[in-house]
Specification:
two-stranded antiparallel ribbon; 11 strands; alpha/beta; about 240 residues; globular
């Protein structure tokens, strides 16, 4: 296996599947099976999920809502998604813990770094909900922050695209894919991988990012097994 401990970043929209909003149980079950395959190989897995399938603070702010209030609603949405994924994983027989950056003691543990690392060492999947616990920070920033804190080897950003391209491959048929690219080149070329805060934090801590297609069956296992899947961003 190429990695020992990974942080998997999933967007909230990924959980919608074919739906317009909310959570698609079929997509959830597919993701749970993919993650179980990796766990069965002895890899330690932490997960951060967005909340865009339920609510986006930024979208709320653009419609006149207070940004801080909207971001708190978004944080709660990530906890809902975390609970859904936890349930799907436990259906597959995978032990899972949900830790939240905002205190909701009835449904999730508070985020405690040492406890999270102990769960991972015991083979449990740890889902980090509630973002960073602060408004104005995205779940991309939460993913990088948690990955650094738990000493993950890599951030695997699961998307619906199979890597980073010179331009949006869904709009530009001539877009070409990068197999590897440096942090510096991503910034120079103005490519969108993560928001700038998250990306810079990853660069400063020399934490590689792999962008890959999470919706293609078997991709996650192939990636951690060392196959050339997606695009690697590194120094």
């Amino acid at each position: 296996m190429q990695y020992k401990r990974i942080l998997l970043k999933l967007s909230g929209e990924a959980l919608m599947g074919e739906r317009q909003y909310g959570i698609d149980p079929k997509r959830l079950a597919e993701y749970a099976e993919e993650i179980k395959e990796v766990i069965d190989k002895g890899i330690e897995v932490a997960i951060v999920i967005g909340g865009g399938n339920i609510f986006r603070g930024l979208a709320g702010a653009s419609n006149g809502m207070d940004r801080v209030q909207g971001d708190h609603m978004g944080m709660l949405a990530t906890v809902i998604n975390g609970l859904a994924l936890q349930s799907a994983l436990e259906e597959c027989g995978v032990q899972t813990r949900l830790q939240s950056a905002i205190q909701i003691n009835e449904v999730a543990e508070p985020f405690i770094r040492r406890r999270a690392m102990r769960h991972l060492e015991k083979g449990r999947v740890v889902i980090f909900g509630g973002g960073t616990g602060n408004p104005y920070f995205t779940t991309d920033s939460a993913a990088v922050l948690r990955a650094i804190e738990i000493e993950a080897d890599v951030i695997l950003k699961g998307t619906r695209v199979d890597g980073i391209y010179t331009s949006d491959p869904e709009k530009d048929k001539n877009a070409t894919k990068f197999d590897t690219i440096t942090f510096k080149d991503v910034l120079t070329k103005g490519l969108k991988v993560m928001d700038t805060t998250a990306f810079t934090l990853s660069q400063e801590n020399e934490l590689p990012i792999v962008v890959f297609d999470m919706n293609k069956k078997g991709n996650l296992l192939k990636l951690v097994s060392g196959e050339n899947i997606g695009t690697v961003v590194d120094n």
